[in-house]
Protein backbone atom coordinates (compact mmCIF):
# COMPACT_ATOMS: atom_id res chain seq x y z
CA UNK A 1 0.00 0.00 0.00
CA UNK A 2 2.04 2.86 -1.28
CA UNK A 3 -0.73 5.43 -0.89
CA UNK A 4 -0.98 5.04 2.88
CA UNK A 5 2.80 5.25 3.32
CA UNK A 6 2.92 8.96 2.58
CA UNK A 7 1.63 11.71 4.83
CA UNK A 8 -0.78 13.09 2.21
CA UNK A 9 -2.17 9.59 1.54
CA UNK A 10 -2.92 9.04 5.23
CA UNK A 11 -4.47 12.51 5.42
CA UNK A 12 -6.74 11.82 2.43
CA UNK A 13 -7.77 8.42 3.81
CA UNK A 14 -8.54 9.80 7.26
CA UNK A 15 -10.48 12.76 5.83
CA UNK A 16 -12.45 10.39 3.61
CA UNK A 17 -13.23 8.15 6.58
CA UNK A 18 -14.29 11.12 8.75
CA UNK A 19 -16.48 12.49 5.94
CA UNK A 20 -18.21 9.12 5.46
CA UNK A 21 -18.76 8.76 9.21
CA UNK A 22 -20.28 12.25 9.46
CA UNK A 23 -22.52 11.43 6.50
CA UNK A 24 -23.75 8.22 8.12
CA UNK A 25 -24.34 9.93 11.47
CA UNK A 26 -26.23 12.80 9.86
CA UNK A 27 -28.35 10.37 7.80
CA UNK A 28 -29.27 8.41 10.94
CA UNK A 29 -30.06 11.57 12.88
CA UNK A 30 -32.15 12.94 10.04
CA UNK A 31 -34.05 9.69 9.74
CA UNK A 32 -34.87 9.65 13.45
CA UNK A 33 -35.95 13.30 13.36
CA UNK A 34 -38.12 12.73 10.29
CA UNK A 35 -39.77 9.72 11.94
CA UNK A 36 -40.60 11.74 15.05
CA UNK A 37 -41.99 14.66 13.03
CA UNK A 38 -44.20 12.39 10.92
CA UNK A 39 -45.52 10.69 14.06
CA UNK A 40 -46.27 14.07 15.61
CA UNK A 41 -48.11 15.22 12.48
CA UNK A 42 -50.16 12.01 12.37
CA UNK A 43 -51.01 12.29 16.06
CA UNK A 44 -52.19 15.86 15.70
CA UNK A 45 -54.32 15.02 12.65
CA UNK A 46 -55.92 12.09 14.51
CA UNK A 47 -56.66 14.32 17.49
CA UNK A 48 -58.23 16.91 15.21
CA UNK A 49 -60.39 14.26 13.53
CA UNK A 50 -61.45 12.88 16.91
CA UNK A 51 -62.40 16.36 18.14
CA UNK A 52 -64.51 16.89 15.04
CA UNK A 53 -66.17 13.46 15.14
CA UNK A 54 -66.87 13.22 18.86
CA UNK A 55 -69.90 15.57 18.87
CA UNK A 56 -71.35 13.70 15.89
CA UNK A 57 -70.93 10.35 17.61
CA UNK A 58 -72.51 11.61 20.82
CA UNK A 59 -75.48 13.07 18.93
CA UNK A 60 -75.88 9.82 17.03
CA UNK A 61 -75.76 7.68 20.18
CA UNK A 62 -78.33 9.79 22.04
CA UNK A 63 -80.58 9.96 18.98
CA UNK A 64 -80.96 6.18 18.68
CA UNK A 65 -83.79 3.96 19.88
CA UNK A 66 -83.39 1.97 23.09
CA UNK A 67 -83.09 -1.27 21.09
CA UNK A 68 -80.00 0.10 19.33
CA UNK A 69 -78.21 1.29 22.44
CA UNK A 70 -74.54 0.46 22.93
CA UNK A 71 -75.40 -1.85 25.84
CA UNK A 72 -77.32 -4.15 23.50
CA UNK A 73 -74.40 -4.08 21.04
CA UNK A 74 -72.03 -5.47 23.65
CA UNK A 75 -74.28 -8.40 24.45
CA UNK A 76 -73.08 -11.30 22.28
CA UNK A 77 -75.58 -13.59 20.60
CA UNK A 78 -75.19 -17.23 21.65
CA UNK A 79 -75.73 -18.48 18.08
CA UNK A 80 -73.19 -16.17 16.39
CA UNK A 81 -69.58 -16.95 15.74
CA UNK A 82 -66.90 -14.35 16.46
CA UNK A 83 -66.62 -13.36 12.79
CA UNK A 84 -70.37 -12.99 12.36
CA UNK A 85 -70.60 -10.99 15.61
CA UNK A 86 -67.89 -8.58 14.37
CA UNK A 87 -69.65 -7.98 11.06
CA UNK A 88 -73.20 -7.78 12.38
CA UNK A 89 -72.96 -4.00 12.60
CA UNK A 90 -72.24 -3.77 8.89
CA UNK A 91 -74.87 -6.27 7.78
CA UNK A 92 -77.77 -5.58 10.15
CA UNK A 93 -77.13 -3.25 13.10
CA UNK A 94 -78.89 -4.37 16.24
CA UNK A 95 -79.81 -7.79 14.85
CA UNK A 96 -79.00 -10.90 16.80
Pick out its properties:
74% helix, rod-shaped, 0% strand, 96 residues, mainly alpha
Question: Rg from C-alpha positions?
Answer: 30 Å
Uncertain spans, ≥5 residues at pLDDT below 50? Answer: none
The counted number of beta strands is 0
Q: So what's the oligomer here?
A: single chain
What is the N-to-C order of secondary-structure elements (H for helix, E for strand)?
HHH
Share of helical residues: over 70%
How far apart, in Å, are the first and last alpha carbons? Answer: 81 Å
| Structural class by secondary-structure content | mainly alpha
Q: So what's the overall shape?
A: rod-shaped
Which band does the percent of strand residues land in?
A: under 5%
Largest sheet: none
**Would you tell me the overall average pLDDT?**
78
**Total DSSP helices:** 3
Q: What's the arrangement of secondary structure elements?
A:
Elements (H helix, E strand, L loop, with lengths): L6 H56 L7 H5 L7 H10 L5
Describe the structure in your own words.
- With 96 residues, this protein is mainly α.
- It has helices spanning 7-62, 70-74, 82-91.
- The protein starts with 6 loop residues before the first helix and ends in a 5-residue tail after the last helix.
- 0% of the residues are buried.
- The mean pLDDT is 78.
Amino acid sequence: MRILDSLSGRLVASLLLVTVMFGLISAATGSITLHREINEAMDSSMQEAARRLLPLVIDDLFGRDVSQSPASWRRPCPTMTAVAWSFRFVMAPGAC
